[in-house]
Design brief:
One of its GO terms (molecular function) is ATP hydrolysis activity. The chain has 236 residues and is an alpha/beta fold. The chain contains 10 helices and 10 strands. The strands form 2 sheets. The chain has a 6-stranded mixed β-sheet, with helices on both faces. The chain is globular and about 45 Å long. The structure holds adenosine-5'-triphosphate and magnesium ion. The site of magnesium ion has 3 residues, from helix 1.
């Protein structure tokens, strides 16, 4: 079953059209990457899905066209967005950031259990549970951003540059944890990642965007085997 389908997605900022036809298909429990140069439209694609920029074309989630819904309505359907730059709430503690992630839920026991799950997944956060998010390192803030998204019990996670600014070993830890989430909770994912080597450790397939358009889509194995992908995204 297909969980998310984008067809001919378009989007503009004011008069400037930046998406001109993005197509993408995420199966239930699947993880799909979006590759592309700076400015290609990767972040805008995630914003269109989460309802934070207006879009044209079709955005079908779980069989329903969700284009035009408000961000809170999209979130309520089970789509969680971990934005570029993380978006954690600096003045709140780690624990309160996790509680904010669960703001649509009423099951207090379930929330407490999921906070424990997140702290097991990211032990660094356990040690900083009462610290303000602003006092965390970049890697810890990224872990918190992912954990906060998980607290909403999403069916689909939108991840934007989860490795940005992190040391290679920290980036690997974050991706190991995300892969674990995928395997244990079966959460589907759309993964935007500059570091394609890292992205390919997580995703089954990917689409390549050029100036707001999907120009190539394939399985991870197919893409990794292509010379132009290796040259442009894999450092060789
Ligand atoms: N808020 C905005 N207002 C106007 N133009 C924007 C805005 N955000 C992005 N753009 C423009 O839209 C285009 C696509 O930007 P987007 O952020 O989606 O690219 P990206 O693929 O995520 O790039 P990067 O790899 O640098 O994060 C770019 O030309 C960018 O300058
Ligand atoms: Mg971006």
């Amino acid at each position: 079953m297909t969980l998310l389908e984008l067809e001919g997605l378009t989007a503009s900022y004011g008069p400037v059209q930046v998406l001109e036809g993005v197509s993408l298909s995420v199966p239930d429990n699947g993880a799909v990457g979006i590759l592309g140069a700076n400015g290609a439209g990767k972040t805008t694609t995630l914003r269109a899905i989460s309802g934070t920029v207006r879009a044209g074309g079709r955005i079908v989630f779980d069989g329903k066209d969700i284009r035009g819904l408000r961000p809170d309505q999209v979130a309520a359907l089970g789509i969680a967005h971990v934005p570029e730059g993380r978006g954690t709430l600096g003045d709140l503690s780690v624990r309160d950031n996790l509680r904010v992630g669960a703001y649509l839920r009423r099951d207090r026991k379930g929330i407490a259990a999921d906070i424990d799950f997140c702290l097991e997944l990211f032990p660094n956060l356990q040690d900083r549970i009462t610290s303000n998010a602003s006092a965390l390192s970049g890697g810890e803030q990224q872990m918190l951003a992912v954990a906060r998204a998980i607290m909403s019990k999403p069916r689909l996670l939108l991840l934007d540059e989860a490795s940005l600014g992190l040391a290679p070993s920290t980036a690997k830890n974050v991706y190991d944890a995300i892969r674990h989430l995928r395997l244990t909770l079966g959460i589907a994912m759309v993964v935007v990642e500059q570091n394609a080597n890292l992205a390919f450790t997580l995703v089954d397939s990917a689409t390549v965007l050029e100036t707001g358009r999907s120009v190539l889509t394939g399985t991870s194995a197919e893409l990794k085997g292509m010379d132009e992908i290796r040259r442009a995204y894999l450092g060789g």
